Amino acid sequence: MKPAAVGPAAVILAAGIVVAGPPALAFADSVTSQDIANRDAPTPEDFTDPDQSQIDKSIVELEPEIYDLDKGIEDVETTKASGGDTVVTLDTDILFDFDSAELSDTAKKKIKDLVEDLPSDSEITVGGHTDSKGEDDYNKKLSEDRAKAVAEVLTSEDSDLDVTAKGFGESEPVESNEKNGKDDPEGRAKNRRVEIRYEG
């Protein structure tokens, strides 16, 4: 195979590479390990053995978000007397994701905080409730699964508690799911709840 002819452009290009090379190499040679150590940007060595101040700083930066989420759960909790019972109501939109019966870690912590106020000598009923969207059977099963999830957290925190979980589905609304013949999102939101009920 005949070698390609070397034209003026190729010569210029080659010359350009030669000319451009020394400044780059010179720059690389001028950067010392001390220059790298003085930079603000982290290096791999920063992460191999962090000191306690670095760990504390990273934890502090996360705290505001955790606080805000916990405050949101606290805001939707209400305690009131109904007849001779005390009822603690929790909004399932805060406790659970849509169409889920799995509690978040923050929700579990909040439920555990309620245990100290629950009487160990009284029957405690955890009732799950939904709005009217969806089929009755599906809503009843979802509400029961959510009630069981809350009940499990309570009994895991205090095994002496006498807790029963029940699912009521959409059968016991506290607000109308419709207003003037139209869907009422605010009313439905109040109906999606878990109630912890006990005497006293």
Description:
By secondary structure, the chain is of the alpha+beta class. It folds into two domains: 38 residues; 123 residues, 60s Ribosomal Protein L30, Chain: A (2-Layer Sandwich), CATH 3.30.1330.60. The protein is 50% helix and 18% strand. It is built from eight helices and seven strands, in the order ααααββααβαβββαβ. The strands form two sheets. Strands 1-2-7-3-4 form a five-stranded mixed beta sheet. It has a two-stranded antiparallel sheet with strand order 5-6. Helix 6 packs across helix 7. The radius of gyration is 32 Å and the shape is extended.
- CATH homology superfamily name of the largest domain: OmpA-like domain
Major sheet: order of its strands? Answer: 1-2-7-3-4
Mean pLDDT: 77
CA(first)-CA(last) distance: 100 Å
Task: Bin the helical content.
Answer: 40-55%
Uncertain runs are 9-22, 24-28, 60-76
Class from secondary-structure proportions? alpha+beta
Overall number of domains? 2
Radius of gyration: 32 Å
CATH topology grouping of the largest domain: 60s Ribosomal Protein L30, Chain: A
CATH level 1 name of the largest domain: Alpha Beta
What is the H/E order?
HHHHEEHHEHEEEHE
Number of strands: 7
Number of helix segments?
Answer: 8
Which sheet architecture does the biggest sheet show? 5 strands, mixed
Domain OmpA-like: 83-200
Signal peptide: 1-20
GO cellular component, one term: cell outer membrane
Pfam families: OmpA (PF00691)
